[in-house]
Amino acid sequence: MSECIIAFLPVSIFSDWIEKNPALLRYISRHVAKKLYCSSYHRGERNFYSAQYVLLNYLLEHIDITKSTEPAVMHRTRQQMSEEIGISVNTINRHLLTFRKEGLISMIHGKVTQNATQRESAKDALQIYIAQNRNGAREKIPI
Length: 143
Fold this sequence. Notes:
By secondary structure, this protein is mainly α. Helix content is 60%, strand content 6%. The longest helix is centred in the first third of the chain and has 27 residues, at 22-48. The chain is built from 6 helices and 3 strands; from the N terminus they run H-H-H-E-H-H-E-E-H. A hairpin with a 2-residue loop joins strand 2 and strand 3 (111-114). The model is unreliable at 134-143 (pLDDT under 50).
């Protein structure tokens, strides 16, 4: 455990302090931005890109392909995936079926699996999905 110090200030005093000391405002802003960057980045990704892109990107990040010939298994339930990426379970199921038909993933006993060949195909498909995003951007994302 780490030691914590908490200070309580009336809003009026804190507001005056920030107004008189811009360096303090910059410090607080940087600290808050650092804390919120990761979550706001992922929320923005969810709003900006298609559900197909967000789900496929999530699968690529969370399925750990080793050098063995065995397919890697996703160790998260669809409900967990839904909560983590903010897409409904029905949408996840629908896109997983699409990914399966496209050969990007396999299903074994209801679990999402992926081998090295499917992973490479999924990376290529991800580039297509990003080209179809809402603003029409055509940049490539490094994976």
